[in-house]
Amino acid sequence: MILRSNSKIGSIMTHSHPYIPPEGPPQDIRLNPEIYTKMGQECIFKMLEDFYAELEKSSIRPLFPENMQEASKKSAAFFVF
Questions:
Q1: Residue 14 forms beta bridges with which residues?
Q2: For residue 73, with 0-12 CB atoms within 10 Å meaning exposed, 13-18 middle and 19 or more buried, which class applies?
Q3: I want to staple 72 with a disulfide (CB 3.0 to 4.6 A). Which of 23, 25, 40, 52 is the partner?
């Protein structure tokens, strides 16, 4: 199966060979610290808890760990710490 990726780039992606930009994959991805300032730790944890609760009902559920509550906490910690 062939999927078209970003038409601006005009590249093609297959299941076995994902598109990698000529300069390579991003090396320094940083989250904007404003997310913590604007939401606060408690709201970030709640947002990820709610998101993972929706994933629990999703057709892509098998892609995630068995313990979704623990997974949501780990994801939230990524934004907070």
A1: 2
A2: middle
A3: 52
**Dist. CA 67–CA 63, nearest whole Å:** 12
Comparing 45 with 29, the larger pLDDT belongs to: 45
Amino acid at 36: Y
The beta strands (E) that lie in the chain are given as: 2-4, 12-14
Helix (H) or strand (E) holding 76: helix 68-80
Is residue 1 very low, low, confident or very high in pLDDT (cuts 50, 70, 90)?
A: very low
Q: Where are the domains of the chain?
A: 37-81
Torsion, Cα of 50, 56, 62, 63 (10° steps): -10
Count Cβ atoms below 10 Å from residue 11 Cβ, excluding itself. 14
Cross-strand partners of 4: 12
